[in-house]
Specification:
Blueprint (H helix, E strand, L loop, with lengths): L15 H4 L4 H4 L4 H10 L8 H13 L5 H16 L7 H6 L11 E4 L14 H17 L3 E5 L20 H14 L9 E6 L5 H6 L10 E6 L2 H9 L3 E5 L5 E5 L3 E4 L2 E4 L10
Parallel strand pairs: 1-2, 2-3, 3-4
Antiparallel strand pairs: 5-6, 7-8
Helix pairs in contact: 4-5, 7-8
Length: 278
Amino acid sequence: MTHKYSLDDLGNIITFKSVENQTTQDYFDNNKFAVDAFNEKYTAFKGETYIQAVKRVCDYISSAEDTEEKQQYWSARWFDEIYNDWWHPAGSIMQGANSGKKISLANCVTISMGSEYDTDLEWDNLESIFKNGGYTIAKCAAYRQGLGVGLSRLRANKMKVLNSANESTGSLHWGKFFDSIGYLVGQKGRIPAMLFYLSIKHPDIEQFVKIKSDYTQIQNANISVQITDDFYDITFENENKIIIELKNGEKLELDKNEQIEIDGKTMRAIDYAEIFTR
C-alpha cells in the first residue's frame, strides 16, 4: 500500500505558523546559557530566532524528497518533533543547513593520512602527514567539522628514518602538530573537536595514554586507544604471564613485571601485549 503523505495525517501538531513569533528567549525559557550558545554558534544570520532556524533546517533537509507533498509532510513533522524536544539536529546541521555558507553537515568524521587505498603506498611519510593529513584537518576545521585522526600507522619514537633527522620523533609529535591546526583554523571562535586514536600494539602507547594528564600538550583532542581481542585474550588467560610479539614475528612469554628492552626503550612486559609491527 502506498502511503499518501498528507499533512492531515499528522493530526494536531505544532506548526511553524503557530509559533513563528516566539523569541529564542521564550523557547529556552530565558535560559541565558542556551540562548547565548544558540546565538553564538548556530544562527545562519544575525537575529535569526531558534524557531526560524528549526524551520530552515527542516525545509532544507526535506527538500531531498522527490515530491512537494513529501517535502511539506516531512518538514512539518520534523518541525513538530524538534520543537517538542523529541530529537535535535547535530550542531553542524543546525548551523549549516541552507545557510549559504561553506559549513559541513557532517558533525564528525574520521580521516586517514593515507591518500590511496589498495596500493603499496606507505602512509608514514611527510607527504601523507602534511599534504593529506594536515590539509584535510584544516579544511574540516574551516567547515566546522569534528574529526578523528588515526596515528597508528606512524612509526614510533626513536625509530630510524632515512633523512637528516636520523630518528623519528614518533606519533605523539605529529599528534601535537595536528592538534595545533585546530587552534589556527577557527570556527567562529570555536576550536574544532578532535579525537586521536592509537593502537594498543604501538610502541608509543604508554606515552600516548599518559599525555592526557599533561595539561600543556594535546588539550583539544580526545585520547582513545584501540584495543584488540588478542590483547584481552592474552591479558586474562594467564594471570602471571604476558606475551610480547617482536617485529620479526618472534613471541616471548614473560612475567608481567619483567623488564625488557626493545628499540632502546625499557618497559615492563605487562605494558604491552604486543609490540606494533609495521
